[in-house]
């Protein structure tokens, strides 16, 4: 049996739970070796597995906590600004992640497959794991729980001003990304030679997981013909284009804008087998 290091994924979420929240939670349940720490004012969902901790806090209180932890005036225009904080979550929540080997940041608009099975010893030997091939994956990224990595965001020039700006500044997928992949348009070999000194945090792992439909990254076959239907069966995630391949998660950012009505979610998250498409999540008929 594979032994995983202790991993905690941190997600602050404020406002109102999305209609798919119980499906999200159920997909967490099927990864019992990974913990989720969710800070929210949304109340307790119907489905909260034992590896998900819900911490109730008002949005203004959370902003005050951020200001105190980082020594800045954090006054965002909207909760979307929290995405900029992702590289600093390890610092902000340092006490909560004591004893963990990795901390991570992620989003709610995902359904996890066998995430814990996807992680390999090779990946976990690195300081950072991104699920995109050439950039930080803001919807899920794992970081070694060391002082260096918790405070790495401080190496970004002008980080205080970027985080104090009330508007979203792509601090996670742009500014933080540049610490790992400077001048990313240059050939990989050239970057290694010319910018070697900037690779002090080079033990990082970037590999495309093909988890995001209709993204700028091509599908496995090199085309932009993405799967139309994904299948979640008792914790294993596949898709109609490659039914033999298991995926760590699905990031459905382009579909969620259509998911506005609970009627689009037929059946029940407890059924254990669903199919996921642009029209919603529905129970499918299959054998366990």
Short description:
The protein is an alpha/beta fold. The chain has helices spanning 21-29, 59-70, 89-92, 115-118, 121-124, 147-150, 159-164, 171-180, 188-194, and strands spanning 7-13, 34-40, 52-56, 102-106, 110-112, 128-130, 140-144, 204-206, 230-233, 236-239, 242-247, 249-251, 265-266, 273-277, 280-283.
Description:
Helix content is 21%, strand content 23%. It has 288 residues and is an alpha/beta fold. The chain has one domain (7-212): Alpha-Beta Complex (Spore Coat Polysaccharide Biosynthesis Protein SpsA, Chain A). The strands form 3 sheets. It has a 7-stranded mixed sheet with strand order 3-2-1-4-7-6-8, with helices on one face. Helix 1 links the parallel strand 1 and strand 2 (34-40). The protein is globular.
Task: Please name the CATH topology.
Answer: Spore Coat Polysaccharide Biosynthesis Protein SpsA, Chain A
Contiguous low-pLDDT stretches (5 residues minimum) are 193-201
Number of helices: 9
Pattern of helices and strands: EHEEHHEEHHEEHHHHEEEEEEEE
Labels describing this entry:
single chain, 288 residues, alpha/beta, Spore Coat Polysaccharide Biosynthesis Protein SpsA, Chain A, seven-stranded mixed beta sheet, six-stranded mixed beta sheet, 9 helices, 21% helix
Topology:
Blueprint: E1 7-13, H1 21-29, E2 34-40, E3 52-56, H2 59-70, H3 89-92, E4 102-106, E5 110-112, H4 115-118, H5 121-124, E6 128-130, E7 140-144, H6 147-150, H7 159-164, H8 171-180, H9 188-194, E8 204-206, E9 230-233, E10 236-239, E11 242-247, E12 249-251, E13 265-266, E14 273-277, E15 280-283
Parallel strand pairs: 1-2, 1-4, 2-3, 6-8, 13-15
Antiparallel strand pairs: 4-7, 5-12, 6-7, 9-10, 9-14, 10-11, 14-15
